[in-house]
Amino acid sequence: MRIQFCIRSASRRRREAVPITERLTRQQSRQLTRERLLEAAAGLFAAQGVGGTSVEQIVEAAGYTRGAFYGNFDGKHELVLALLEERTRHELAEVRAMDVGAGGFEETLDRLRAWHRRRDENLAGWLALRTELWLYALRDPELRPVLAERERRSRETIARSLEQGFAERGITLPAPVEQLSLIVHALDDGLSIQRVLAPDDGGPESVVDAVELLLASWAALARTAPPAGNRSEDPAP
Questions:
Q1: Are 58 and 86 part of one and the same domain?
Q2: For range 78-94, the mean pLDDT
Q3: Are 208 and 108 members of one domain?
Q4: Could you report the per-residue pLDDT of 111-148, keeping only the tens digit for each?
Q5: Where does residue 119 rank: exposed (0-12), middle (13-18), buried (19+ CB within 10 A)?
Q6: Angle ∠(152,33,44) on CA atoms, nearest 5
Q7: 26 with 142, same domain?
Q8: Domain containing residue 53
Q9: What is the 3-state secondary structure (H, E, C) of 109-177?
Q10: Using an 8 Å Cβ cutoff, are 63 and 10 in contact?
């Protein structure tokens, strides 16, 4: 559940930067530089990997100098951390916004379908960048907790949405919501990979279709089983 990135040409960036920065404060100009460096790095990481991308390539794609890069980041490692945080923040904001003003859980699902259709326009690039950032973090024991925190925040957002959907239908959750959100989160990851590898085997809304099927199954299970918190530890004789 996430955000898309693209690389603008360096020449276009230079044309845009001059008139814009003249009207900005120093702090705003620095923020704009930082955002463009992150955007350029995201596109390059998706295309050729974190290890295959140099600082020189990032600044060239962004239309800046090495001095501008090191004025915002200590190095590529810090940039990767910033990119992980930015992606998490933006993606969670997008997902949480789906519940705002929605008339019910069905409308939230409709918004989720529309979000997936938009993401599908650049799904291969999004997945490539996500995978690159994951691999970078997984190979560094100090970064694994950062990646774990990102995933935890994503699952918490999913959990709140599931709780809302079941509550609106007056259905008791058939299992701890943390477990259900983990299933949905993993399902999104797995189906996204399959969508990129075999695009003709499913549409851009396949993730939402699968989630709806799960919700229906869980709702049916909840009608025939006692609430998770009331189940006996030992089977009845």
A1: no
A2: 89
A3: yes
A4: 888 888 998 999 999 999 999 999 999 999 888 998 89
A5: buried
A6: 65
A7: no
A8: 10-70
A9: HHHHHHHHHHHHCCHHHHHHHHHHHHHHHHCCCCCHHHHHHHHHHHHHHHHHHHHHHHHHCCCCCCCCH
A10: yes
